[in-house]
Design goal:
Number of helices: 4
Strand content: under 5%
Number of strands: 0
Largest sheet: none
Distance between the termini: 35 Å
Radius of gyration: 18 Å
Helix content: over 70%
Structural class: mainly alpha
Length: 128
């Protein structure tokens, strides 16, 4: 756990410094791009928290191993598409053209994870 937190903080500094405005006399991004980057980056951090709490919750529920794996992998893929994919599209200036596909993929994966999760919960409730 401590390694993951340290890696997250170090990666944030290493990746974040070149993107900041006027840090050491310059920036990779314009002010408009930086404002968009902050929104997309914040959304990516939000998705990582959703993934973390989903992982904590799903491990404590009585679902089959297959249901847990499918839900977990779908949620992880949704986080990658929504967080990393959207950030990459923004940096490549392709968010306007391809962002709708990233959003669609993310929504489909979150719905899949949620449907498997809820189906497992309903089956468990019906048995008791």
């Amino acid at each position: 756990m401590a390694f993951g937190i340290a890696l997250f903080l170090i990666s944030g500094v290493i990746v974040g410094i070149p993107l900041t405005i006027n840090f050491f006399g310059g920036s990779v991004l314009t002010m408009e791009q930086y404002q968009s980057w902050k929104v997309v980056h914040g959304y990516g951090v939000f998705l990582s928290f959703i993934n973390y709490f989903f992982g904590v919750i799903i491990d404590r529920l009585a679902l089959t191993r297959g249901q847990k794996e499918l839900s977990s992998w779908a949620m992880l893929a949704a986080g990658l598409v929504g967080g990393v994919g959207r950030m990459t599209l923004l940096l490549l200036s392709a968010l306007d053209e391809l962002g709708v596909y990233a959003s669609l993929g993310e929504v489909v994966l979150i719905v899949l994870a949620t449907a498997v999760f809820l189906r497992g919960q309903m089956a468990r409730s019906a048995q008791t």
